């Protein structure tokens, strides 16, 4: 008599996140899923809250679930998650960031045999890991997590020191960038045409969520400091801010109050970022907290020098004075001074842009990122070199 038929379907990974909307962490998740080799894994995405049109960037075969978390305390949320996991029966659950770490408990109770948690950056209520409450939460859930994936050195140090995660249960994996899609091909015309800027105007740019931890108002205020009056026949700097959020209206108001609204373009979220970035003269990241910024990597791959705050993983990505400039967080004056110096020296900007592109190609390929994640999954699932093979897990993660 024939033996029982075994399920030969690839392992199922359930990615649990707060919501699937435009953002760096979410972009990294989409890249990982879409670039997983065919037949290696199956993926589902579970959003504790919901998702936007951003979800259409995923492979159409990937199902996305929304649990519609209610504002504040939602007592039934984790019961809904438990029931969904019991139905899906994933082989591995991967939660991301503070907002989803509590999902480790219902995953364990649902019998998911392997559980991973990723730390991608700091929550506004926990900048630098300063919150005692959230330290206690992470410590309490630590025994349920089989493996932690911090994106940056500071997150790795925090998990090891403050949370007590042993080194053998951590793999640092930096984000990766598609250096084929993001490349220095712009001549400046595309962006300036869209924004209505003069062809010769130097352009400072930013991409992200207009929320507090990203501190977009610091860039607005720095730009106001350095913009200067434009005399007849002069062409001075312009500002581009791509993204949406609760601070977008205030950013517009401050630019209008300074008489600079005509020299700024704030169109909201855009699908053509890869076409716009190469046309920038400077990319700026004024965040109060960061993990490994996808937008910084994309700007680097486009050959654009970066001025960023010295927080999170930014010092890992940017070689200060060589590929860009690092400034203190929350200091529009220092940021403005760095912008003024860079705008005054086109040759230095060009040299930093070339160095940025070379660094992105050499150290932050998207292929290395995907291989590192698949290596962690393979090891936890007890698989040898098969369809998940991507080389050994790099020491300290994909670099």
Automatic annotation (TrEMBL):
<dbReference type="InterPro" id="IPR017522">
    <property type="entry name" value="Sugar_tfrase_PEP-CTERM_Stp2"/>
</dbReference>
<dbReference type="Pfam" id="PF13692">
    <property type="entry name" value="Glyco_trans_1_4"/>
</dbReference>
<feature type="domain" description="Glycosyltransferase subfamily 4-like N-terminal">
    <location>
        <begin position="22"/>
        <end position="180"/>
    </location>
</feature>
<keyword id="KW-0808">Transferase</keyword>
<protein>
    <submittedName>
        <fullName>Sugar transferase, PEP-CTERM/EpsH1 system associated</fullName>
    </submittedName>
</protein>
<dbReference type="Pfam" id="PF13439">
    <property type="entry name" value="Glyco_transf_4"/>
</dbReference>
<dbReference type="GO" id="GO:0016757">
    <property type="term" value="F:glycosyltransferase activity"/>
</dbReference>
<dbReference type="InterPro" id="IPR028098">
    <property type="entry name" value="Glyco_trans_4-like_N"/>
</dbReference>
